[in-house]
Each structure stands twice: as C-alpha cells, then as structure tokens.
TrEMBL record, chains A, C:
This is Pyruvate dehydrogenase (Acetyl-transferring) E1 component subunit alpha. Keywords: Oxidoreductase, Pyruvate, Thiamine pyrophosphate. One of its GO terms (biological process) is pyruvate decarboxylation to acetyl-CoA. GO terms for molecular function: pyruvate dehydrogenase (acetyl-transferring) activity. Its cofactor is thiamine diphosphate. Residues 14-315 form the Dehydrogenase E1 component domain. PANTHER family: PYRUVATE DEHYDROGENASE E1 COMPONENT SUBUNIT ALPHA, PYRUVATE DEHYDROGENASE E1 COMPONENT, ALPHA SUBUNIT BACTERIAL AND ORGANELLAR. Coiled coil: none annotated.
C-alpha cells in the first residue's frame, strides 16, 4: 500500500489526540466537571484514524453515542468539543446535545444518534442525495457491533445495496454491546458475513491495525465514489474502559474477564503503530514527545476555552425546535 | 377569491400539489412503497414516474424506517424529500426514525441543520380495513416536539397546505383521511399557498363552537345545517394544522359562543381534542357558559364489521346531541 | 419420500378447498357482500397444503394478511371463516378482525397480523414459550417475500437462531410485494440466502410442488421439534389474482407482464399435483368430482351459516380491549 | 397499615416485586438488554440470573422489536413475560410491536386470547442524558387502546403495582422515573398488591387540587408544604395508573377545592395532563372556581446542558406560582 510519511504521522497524531482527549474527558468526568453519559473509545482509535486522508471535503459522516474519535478524526475542533461536553453555548451543539450527539453539519459531520442503529437508515439518505445531485460525495456511517442486531441495520444496508448508494458502513466490533458479547448475539462467524444478505461486499479487518483499516477504507471509499455502491467494513477492536464512564465492569469485571482485557491491552493500537512507525524510521522518541506536547497544549487550551465559555440561555431553547418559533 | 375555479377531488388536489412542486423544484423527490410503477394505492402518484422518472419517484422495499431515514439524510443534505407511509398505522414501524431522529435533529444540533421533509400518509377508518389500517394517530405526533402536522379537510386546503409543507424547512406530517380522497371541492387555477397555523372557520355561527378535524369536518357542517333548521347557529372551526395550532381563532370563537364541542375521529382518551379542550379550559374559561364537550371514538382498536365500525366513528347524530346537551346546560 | 395415499389425497383436497373457498370469496366480494380488504392466495395453495400432516395438535401458527390458505390447512372451519368475512358475531374473531386477521388461538392458530413482518418477532415468543415449558410444540410462521425487507424479519430470525427456538419461518415468495418485484428489492439471489446471516439453515423449494414443500416442512419441523432450532424455507410461487381484490394489475397488467402471468398460470399447483396423482394412480376423474362436490356443499353450507348469523352488538366492543372493562 | 415496615429505595422495591413474583410463579420470566449478566444498568436485576438462571433472566441482542414480540408470543401461550426496554425513548424502536400487536391482539381475536405481559422501562429527565434518553412518553401510550399504564411515585406504590401488573391478564406499561430509583419510602414486610385504577391522595387539602405524576409527586408535596406556610392548603393527587384512570378521585377533589393545577414532566402539548384537564372541564366544570392550570415541560426535545435541562423540568417554584395564580382569580 502506498502511503506517505505525512499521512502516517497524521494518523499517529490523530490516534494520540483521541486518546489524550478522552483521558482528559474521563478525568474531568470523574471530578464531576462533565455531566451526562460518556462513552469513550479508548482502545479503538485506529478505526477513525484509518479514515484520515481517505475522506475529503464534501463527504458526510454519521455517527453514534461513541463518537469522540470519529469527530476528532473528521477534523472537529477540540475547544468546541469540550465546550459541548461542558454544556456551553460555544459547543458544537450549543449545549443542546452533549457527548452522545456532538456533530458539525457544516463540515459534513451530520449527526450522532444515541439510538443504536438509527444512523444506518439516515446514511442512505445522504448517500442518495449525493447520487441525485450527481456529486461524488461519500457517506461514512459508523456503528457498533450491537447496532447490527437492530432492524434498522437490515433496512438501511438493503436499501443502500439495491440503490448502489455511495455509503461505507463501518462496524467497530469491540465485541460487546454493553454487557452482551457479540458471540452470544449472533451465530454467523463474522459480522461482515451479514453483508452477503444484501449482496454487498463485506470485509473484516484488524481494527487495531490502523493501516489495515486505512486500506479497507480506501477501497470502500473508492468503490463508493466510483459508483460501485456500498461496502460493509468490520473492524475488530476493543474498548479499554467500561461501556460508559461508571460501568462497574471497568473495575469489577462483571462481563469481561481479566485475561481478555489484559490480552487486548497488550494489543493497544497506539503502541502497535508506534512500534511499527519506529521500525519504519518514521517515528522516534523525540517526535513522540513533540506530538504529545502539542496535543497537551491543544487540550489544555481547549479546556480553558470551554471553561471560560458562557452557558446557554434557557429561554432560547424554543428557538431550535423549528426554523421559526411558530408552533413551538 | 378572485380566481378562476375548478372542482376536483381531494386526491387530485394532492396530485396537483405534488406535481407542481416537483416541476418547480428539482430537489423535490418522492420516496415510498408502490408510489412509482403502481402510482400509489389510491392513484395519488399515477403517471408521476413517467413524467419525473424513477430517480425522483422512488419505489422502495418494505422498509418504513429506511424510507424515513433516507428522507432525513437527503433533507439534511439539500434535498426536499416527500416520503409516503402507505397507511398511518405503519408509522409504528418507523416511529423512532420519525420521533427521535427527524423531529429532534435540528434541536440536537443546536439549530445548525434543517430537515425539510414531508411525510404523507393516509389515516382514518371507514373502509372496514380493521385495527391495523384505520387509525388516527395525530395526537401522538402532536405530542412529540419537532414535527409539524397538517390535517386538511378539503381539496383546497390539501393543495395549499401541501405546497407550504414542501417549501418549508421543517419536518411535516401531512395527513390524508382516506374517506376524503374522493370528496370534491373548488380550487383556483392560479397557484396559492396556505400558511400553517391558520384555522379556517368553515361555517360561521354564534350559539356554539364546533371544533372538528379531517373527515369530521363535512359531518360537522351537515350537523350544523340540521341544527340551523332548529334555530341553533353553530360555528364550525377547522384548525387545518395541529402544529402549529391556531389557538386564537378557537379562543375567539369560544369567547363569542361560550359553548364548545370538539370532535375528532381519534380514540377519545388522549386525543388532540384533549389538548384543544385544555387550552380552552386554561385560556377561555371565563367565557364558558357550559362544560366543554368532547366527542371521539371509543377507546378500542378499530373494529372490522360494518355495524361495529359505524358505531366506532363519530357521526352527525352524536354531534347534534352533544350540541343540544350543552345548550341545555 | 414416504407419504401415504391418505396424505396425498388430503393435500390435494386441501388445495382444492382453499381454491374454491377463495373463488367464492372473490365472487361474494365482487357482489359487495364481503366488506374490507381481501388478499387471496389463489395460485399459492401448495404451500399451506405442504404443511398438512406435518404439524400436530399443540403446534402454533402465525400468519399474515394473506392467511385464508394457512387457516384452512390448519383445519379451521369454513363456516366460522365466512362468518368472520361477513363481519358476523359467529366468526372466528366475532367480527372484530375480518379477512386480514382470521385466527383461532384455541387451535394454536394464534394470530394473523396485517403489519408486514410483525409475525416474525411474535413467533420467537411462542417458540421460546414451548422451550421454557419443555414441550415439543413447533411454531410455523408464514410471511411474504416483502416481509423479509422489514427490520422485524432481521430481529426475529436472529433471536430465533441464537436461542435455537423451535420455529419454522416460511416465506411464500410470490415475487411481488404489491407492485414491488423482489428482484428490485434485494440483491442476493435467493431469500433463503439471508438465513446465513443468522447462522440458520435456509432452503428454497418449488412452492408450486406440494411434495417439495412437504419435504421441506417435514425436515424443518423435525429439526425444530428435536431441539435443532429454526429453519427458513423459501417457497417460490405466484398469486394469480391481484395483490388485493380490486388491484388494477389483475386486469391491466400494471406491474406484472402478461407473459409472466401466463407462464405461471400454466404452472398451477393444483393442476400439477392432479397430473402427478393421476400418474401415480391415486386420483381419477371420479374421485375429483367427488371431492369437488363435497367441497362445494361444504362451502355452500358455510356461506349459508354465515349469512344467517347475527351481526355483533356494537356496544360490546369495549369488552374485548382488556380482560375486564375497567379502564376502557 | 398494621404491618411491620421497612425503608427501602424505589429500585429495591421494584427488585423485590420481580423477585417475589418469579419465586411465586414459574411462568414469570424476564427478557431484555443487559438484565442478566449486568443485572440492569441501574442494578434492578442484580443477582437475578444467579438465583433464577439464564433461561428465566434472558439477555437479548439489541433488538427491541424482538424483545417485545417474543414477550407477546410467550404471553399468548401461557407465560408471563416481564420485558425491559432500557429507556422509554427506545420504545420508538418497537412501537409497532407494542401498539399494533400487543395492545390489539386480544381485541382483534374477538377476545379469544390474552396477552399477559409487562413492559418495564425508565422514563424522565434529570441525568443530563439529552434528547434520546430522557423522555416521558406516557401520553402516547395512554392514547393507544389496549395497554394499561402504571406510574408509581413511591417505593410502596411501585412494588404493589408491579405485582398487580405481573398477575394481570393484560399488557401493562410499567414506568419507572429514573430520578426516583434512589428515593426512599416505607413498605410493609408482608405481601401486598395495589389495584390499578385507584388514585392515591398523597396529601389532603381543601384550597386547591394538584394532580401530579411520577417524579413530580415529591415536588408537588414540597410545594404544598411551602404553600401551607402561607396558609394555602393544597391536596396532592397521584393517579398511580393512567390506564385505568381514577377519574372519580380527581373529580371529587376538584368538587371540594374548585381549583386545580395539573403537573407532569411531559412536553405540555398533548400531555396526559391534557386528558385529565379535559375530563375535569367536561365533568366537573360546574364546580370550578378558576381556570384549570397545566404545567409541563416546554415543547422542545430534552436539552443536555444542566441549566437548560433544569429549565425544562417542572419544579416546585412553577407549581407554587401556578397555585397562587389560580387562587387570585
Ligand atoms: C435502540 C437502542 N437500544 C439500546 C440502547 C442502549 N445502549 C446504548 S449503547 C448500547 C450498546 C451498543 O453496542 P454497540 O453497538 O456494540 O456499540 P458500542 O457501545 O460497543 O460502541 C446500548 C445497548 C440504545 N441507546 N438504543
Ligand atoms: C409494515 C407494512 N408496510 C406496508 C404494508 C402494506 N402492504 C400490505 S401487504 C404488502 C405487500 C406484502 O408483500 P409480501 O410480504 O410479499 O406478501 P404478499 O402480499 O405478496 O403475500 C404491503 C406493502 C403493511 N401492511 N405493513
Ligand atoms: Mg460494541
Ligand atoms: Mg409477495
């Protein structure tokens, strides 16, 4: 696979940025500074990073409750992300959405739904829209393994397939939907096998290997852009934290065995990529420190921005229901 | 109205609105089951596929969530989809997509994205289509913030409201009562639009206010005509849109008459008539001369057998009796 | 395949009975004697007949808007069926249901839903119930090709598969969901291919060959009864009438080509079976006439019964919402 | 009550009801997401799987329609399933299965089959869980004939109502407001059941009637206590079940006080408070001394940010102001 050094380093940076961002989020949540429900993607960073430099301006993104990584990889600004997490008026969703719904329609990051499976059917629409308007825009639709059990998955993938819509469905298979292990939730061997029911290409890749993910994205996006229709990409990965911050499993191993967690911690996608990049001579300790430093500064400033930002004005919530306040 | 007029059915009025809007705006497209080749089960979109092609008149598989989801994604990215759900009853199959996605996306994004889409569907009983093809669920969607609701009772209203719905920037639920498809009315040859949130006084009167919706409107007018013969002068108000609701026209009428009967075909418990009654009880109480009276269907699923279905659906007799009852208070 | 002469004749009779019943229904509908929506299965009779003598007392049936054939094959009484179609108090559903909902829970014919796809998820429940109560009851769940496009199909089949429920899902693939040809509604070659997504055996049979259908039922019911879990059977067939009585396609060929219809009319399942039985020496003109005569009498008496029956009392409808009238 | 009492949380009261009913009746089983190994996200069913085994405490895939459909089929064939939908908001994903199947099967069969099932779910805002994890949709299900609705506000009510729900022969929607899970109350050690359709007067008073539901009950009581200091004696009524609704207790109270405020956490338009207000306007109008007053959330999706969410949720202050307003009429 051809890939430039810039691209490699960009992916590495993206992964570290997602990791540090979420570590900070976890820390601020523990301190009671961030309200609401938080789902972190620590351990899964290779998947969104694999998308970097494959999508381009004009493309669309549809995401889930576990979206921080997708949004950072899409290029969203950490300041406005923190501001949203803090419930501030300067946040991406002006405090209306919070962690589960951060999005930025202006840059194509259309929506993050916390209804599992809801995104698949919506992605058919941005896909169809591009087709009808005869553009080459591609829609990336992320979901978890659990989402593939919802009826909307079936309806969305089937529609995208029969209409050859330019959509890439990406399943981040972290093996669990909260406590439900995917092995107990389906009998087919791989989630990507399900693509066959829709006559759609399906592929399973090591989701902790950013370059494998990248390759899969590249092929699928190319197919979509060229009018070849949708693809289902399954990325095998693992979340290091609990399902949500506060999930008892994180410390008490309610549904995941210690050995399993240990095994996956060893396969940390950032560590793996770091070693590979060092071997390739692209990365060294000095560059790492520089990257870490830059990210640390970016995060600190973003948090400061968020902290200093004003809270939204409650009386204004009726303004966002419709395009005018008539009928609210 | 100063225009040349023609008499057409409600079905044809809806056809015309769709046809004209598709001609006017290339971003408008149709999506739904059996709307293309078949041209809709009631013939609403007959020949549309010939005129506009199958890219813009999209027959879908039996996947209601995908129909609505596809409309949402298209609406968010510059298109103006008009989705059809064959019967309102099937909106249960895409309820999440309508109520948790379409209706909330603008708000959840902090007002940063619009979802300009219309969902057309037919509602109501009268065809002996039984419990899963005859329902009136408007109260349900009225309760969920973020979706506007049009409830035309005449061809004129249907055409004008549908055009407004398609041109607006918000999700709209456009309800077509199946028993009204072949009722006729006059519409102008010229283009016209009807704004949302403006009730129409279908008959003026001073003794009692009858607020009715959809297929009950013609019945309410007939009831008023019968009452007129007995010297009772009823005003019949058609809200035309439930969201936004023109509270003022209703309240003004009640202030004038002091008495009100609200009639809809919905199951009475939790019907849209309850919201209207509550508004009156909150905001026009001082002018009321008698208890508010509500008429609805009994709180049962829609039964199949003709005598059962007839009993289920509110009719002229029930309206007349209710009016007489509150006039005697 | 071993099959007794009685069984062969029973299947033949069942098919003729369904045909004549529905022809009568069509005639009475045209005369305005039957109200409501009617979906006839003329042309598809081999599918329910194939089920005869495979299911046994205690088994469950879940059906659809096109259920007359299923119900007759299940053993329902024509008198109470006609009474239901006429909206009479003596009908199976006491006039509350009509054609689309005829059922007889007392004999295990639990429910016929006119919401396409709704049955698949309910069938998992009667399946689970049998499993929990440790009986060997099997649930037969009929659906059309269109139903396989609904989200409930996906959720129902997946659940039945992972829990190894004793359910047989039978798709009557008559090639159309109203006007939508199944070839335009999915890209996979056969509907039975979709079973793979659930790790469930799937089979496609000639749905106009009652013996092929019978064999598929026998295998699937045996598997279910023996604890082997669910099966998806796809039966390729065709409806001779329109989707509903009144469908313009029936005369005007709106969505089905004349040649296609002609082709399938030639493959009439009753004709095919008749020829085969004659070849086998099991049937002759005399027996046919006897069967036709018996059925004619049964239908005439059933119609008379229905005509003479009383209409339901409207005031009583509130009695059937809950187990008591409290809260209606 | 003459029993020995103990103080427990609402969560534990619900646990106890489920545990005891599962011990009592082998046909009762649980089905839902994350109820087994995890024991429910709020710990409602912790250790149930150890006690009752995974056959009777069934973790499902993320398939809400299948959860409800499976419960229906089991209920029709002799079992008594208690299904859990993790958040009420997700009932949109199985709306058809609940409203067109579970709620209608008895009726559509002509009364020939029962569907004895309970759907437990949590509703309500207060956790900054935003628009898709905080809703109160009781009015929606109240409107659909065929499903009973329990809305407990105390541990005592929760336990007694849940047992009645499980033993009944009809589909029941059992609502648990997430902000009440850790509120405490006394319940007897002895077994008890609470019938559906019996409202509870949570506080007696003579000047004004406050009808409230779920998490608003404790607020209404606090508001009444504050008003008492100003010499205003408010009666607080908790309907406890919305279907059946105990109209009589509400009407009797209004006849006594002549003034009523109805407060629920739902979006105000089309809320259950509208149905209650309408009943009063129809049946107790003669006794009213002031307009009916309704309080609900604004007609917006539930916002995330704490000050927005606080503004959204009805509170003591709004109740007090409303009472004072109608007392000054
Ligand atoms: C329709 C629906 N059902 C259930 C939930 C509750 N819930 C939130 S996330 C989640 C697990 C999702 O699993 P998966 O799709 O694998 O994504 P992951 O959390 O593992 O990233 C569940 C059950 C929900 N939000 N929406
Ligand atoms: C959820 C839902 N969507 C749409 C319909 C309208 N409808 C009734 S039957 C039908 C076609 C069903 O096709 P299929 O499943 O193949 O069964 P067939 O009618 O061919 O026997 C449609 C679209 C419905 N009843 N329910
Ligand atoms: Mg997962
Ligand atoms: Mg078909």
């Amino acid at each position: 696979m051809e890939i430039t050094v810039e691209d490699l380093l960009d992916k590495y940076k993206t992964m570290v940025k997602i990791r540090r961002f979420e570590e900070k989020v976890s820390e601020l949540f523990a301190k009671g500074k961030i309200p609401g429900f938080l789902h972190l993607s620590i351990g899964q960073e290779a998947v969104p990073a694999g998308m970097r430099n494959v999508v381009k301006k004009g493309d669309y993104l549809i995401s889930t409750h576990r979206a921080h990584g997708h949004m950072i990889a899409w290029g969203l600004d950490l300041s406005k992300m923190f501001a949203e997490l803090f419930g501030k008026e300067t946040g991406y969703n002006r405090g209306r959405g919070g962690s589960m719904h951060i999005c930025d329609p202006n840059s194509g990051a259309l929506f993050a739904s916390a209804i599992v499976g809801a995104g698949t059917v919506i992605a058919t629409g941005s896909g169809l829209s591009a087709k009808l308007r005869k553009t080459d825009q591609v829609t990336i639709c992320f979901m978890g393994d659990g989402a593939t059990e919802e009826g909307t998955f079936h309806e969305g993938l089937n529609l995208a397939a029969i209409w050859k819509l330019p959509v890439v469905f990406v399943v981040e298979n972290n093996m669990y939907a909260i406590s439900m292990c995917v092995k107990n939730a389906m009998l087919c061997e791989k989630i990507s096998d399900r693509a066959k029911a829709y006559g759609m290409p399906g592929i399973t890749v090591d989701g902790n290997d950013v370059l494998a993910v990248h390759k899969a994205f590249k092929d699928a996006v190319k197919r979509a852009r060229d009018g070849g229709g949708p693809t289902l990409i399954e990325c095998l990965t693992y979340r290091h934290h609990g399902h949500w911050e506060g999930d008892p499993d994180y410390t008490a191993e309610v549904y995941r065995k210690r050995e399993e967690v240990q095994e996956w911690l060893k396969r940390d996608p950032i560590k793996i990529f770091e070693i590979k990049l060092k071997e390739m001579g692209v990365l060294n300790q000095q560059i790492i420190e520089k990257i870490e430093k830059e990210i640390q500064v970016e995060i600190e400033e973003a948090v400061k921005y968020a902290e200093r930002s004003p809270l939204p004005d409650p009386e204004k919530i009726i303004e966002d229901v419709f395009s005018t306040t008539d009928g609210v | 109205m100063g225009y040349d007029m023609k008499e057409i059915t409600m079905r044809d009025a809806i056809r015309e609105a769709l046809w004209e809007e598709m001609e006017r705006d290339p971003n408008v497209f149709l999506i739904g089951e059996d709307i293309g080749t078949l041209g809709n089960i009631f013939g609403i979109t007959t020949n549309f596929i010939k005129k506009f092609g199958k890219e813009r008149v999209r027959d879908t598989p039996l996947s209601e969530s995908a129909i609505i989801g596809c409309a949402i994604g298209a609406a968010m990215t510059g298109m103006r989809p008009v989705a059809e759900i064959m019967y309102m009853d099937f909106m249960g199959c895409c309820f999440d997509t309508i109520c948790n996605q379409a209706a909330k996306i603008r708000f959840m994004s902090g007002g940063k994205v619009s979802v300009p889409m219309v969902i057309r569907t037919n509602c109501g009983a009268g065809f002996q289509a039984a419990a899963q093809h005859s329902q009136s669920w408007e109260a349900i969607f009225m309760h969920v913030p973020g979706i506007k609701i049009a409830i035309p009772s005449t061809p004129y209203d249907a055409k004008g409201l549908l055009k407004t719905a398609i041109r607006g920037d918000d999700p709209v639920l456009f309800l077509e009562h199946k028993m009204l498809y072949f009722t006729k009315g006059f519409i102008p040859d010229e283009e016209y639009l009807i704004p949302f949130g403006k009730a129409d006084v279908k008959r003026e009167g001073k003794d009692v206010t009858i607020v009715a919706t959809l297929a009950v409107i013609p019945k309410a007018i007939r009831a008023a005509d019968i009452l007129a013969k007995e010297g009772i002068d009823a005003e019949v108000i058609d809200p035309r849109t439930l969201v936004p609701l023109d509270k003022q026209t209703i309240i003004n009428s009640v202030k004038k008459t002091g008495r009100v009967v609200i009639v809809t075909e919905e199951n009475k418990r939790g019907a849209s008539s309850a919201e209207i009654a509550s508004i009156i009880a909150e905001e026009a109480w001082n002018w009321l001369k008698a208890p508010i009276k509500r008429i609805g269907a009994p709180n049962t699923p829609v039964p199949f057998s003709p005598p059962l279905e007839n009993y289920y659906i509110p009719n002229e007799e029930k309206i007349i009796n209710a009016v007489k009852e509150i006039l005697s208070t």
